[in-house]
Amino acid sequence: MAGIARWGVSVPVWRLDRGMLARAWDTPALPGERAAASGDQDALTLGVEAALECMRGGDTSQIDAIYFATTTAPYAEKHAAATIAAVLDLHDVMTVDVTGTIRAATTAIRTALDAVRSGGARAALVVAADMRPAEPSTSMEQLFGDAAAAVLITADGPVSVIGEASVAEEFTGPWRRAGDHYVHSFDGKIETESYARAVERAVTAALADAGVSPDAVSRFAAYAPDPRTFATTAKRIGFAQAKDRLFSTIGNTGAAHALVALAGALDETSPGEHVVVAAQGEGADALVLAAGAGVESARQVWTLQRALDDKRILPSYERYLRFRRLLPVDEENEPPSSTIRTWRDRAQAFALYGVRCNECGTVQFPANRACISCSALDNMTRVRLQRTGTVFTFTLDHLIAGEYLETPVPRAVVDLDGGGRIFVEVTDCEASDVKVGMPVELTFRLMHEGAGFKNYCRRGGVHRRRDRTEGHPSDLVRRVLPLHRVERNDGRRRLAPVRHPLHARRELLRQRHGCVPQRVLRRRGGRVRHRARVRRREDHRPGLARVAERAPRLDPALHAAGERPCAVRDGRDAHVRRTRLDARRSCARRGEEPRQRR
Predict the structure, then answer these.
(1) Do 500 and 395 contact (CB within 8 A), yes or no?
(2) What is the pLDDT of residue 81?
């Protein structure tokens, strides 16, 4: 009997207080807060994080199918599930996108169950994520939230599916056409009645198929447009004590809502209990689950409750608008990109592959032909790098893409566990939080949309995790991203100490060559010279006086003739140009007139 073997969730670290939204538009406020994805996140990146959390510590080689359920896919014509497979380093798998309806997640689960039961797949991964756009100043803006969840379907999962049913009903609402930017809604009372009717029919049929009465159900996880509709429908079915805590903490997460609620229910389910999961959208799907003896050991360390507790409140509504790109931006500053380069570097950007030298064993990223330690050429083995590491050094930059930012952008050099070093940007945290030796974890984010397509790479946010073996909270973990682009988050305006922009790169040079070049060479008159040390402006005039006093001791004849040493024109340095003096001395000895400069 097929069932759920593993599950995981991904909730953005940022929360938007609904009272702040109400004050911005002078409207009534709903209680609680909502989850707000960062500017470098979308439904696909949230889904990738949920998939990685679901398969953390697990074997991905058994996965034969990946289903991605969403209503906000990053492309209208491009496979999103294939990107999830690339990040998981899976290639010989079937990928399916299920979209266009709020109940896409439960539909994907039913399809995955059929594939596993028929023997077409040993294991199937179902990922659901959503970032539904809501028009500013509306109630949807307060109610909607962003999140993702993933479940692994296997033939012998500890959570068995013992009953399932589906119903179809033509109904317009809510909807979003191909050219619409925001979600539209029908009359609230009619939507509530349609939702309750469809969910009640589907859940009743699923309970009958499983032979379970409503009194035997311990938890009810379902999508609903609002908390009142959820409570009314649950009472009509027979689940009078059912509650949904997601509305007041992260909001209505759309197609991912049912799976996120299911993950939270499975985190608290004991063996022998029954769970019902349902989703509605032009009809409804319902499944009845029975928890077995291995449900407690299948739980991940990063539970839904820990994801809800690990949060940061957005300091301003303007930052949320910047995250959603609702403020005018200069699209001409988008960095250049290339589809050919993206295809060429896909193993490094998605699956995070580096190379190991066969001569000395040094692991390096990105992949090069020559070893950075022993200089061995073309003697490398490709290896997949780990996602965790520690900060070796970091810098805080204010000048990004020619624009000065008062909030500095942290950039760090990270030593990965198991070998390898990567130059990254730190995201989803304040600049003051970054410290040397801080544990970090690589993640998957959206870099930019240069050249008209979405460029993905490794990025991240703030999370606190618990080690399963030790059983106590670990140190604060910051997720980091490879260095390409920074979302301009200026909610907290302050000046911080600035380090040299090449500080992190100089540390890499020091580790590679044993020293850092302290002088910059410049070419003058066919010869290479060291740039003179720049003096402070207040030391300029005393410097000229000292040079004038020393000039007679160098050549009294030239000094008596009125010749003076030449100083740098810009006034920042004062030194004798020895080449000109040497030329004048030679001419004086030969009795010739010095050549005049043009």
Answers:
(1) yes
(2) 97
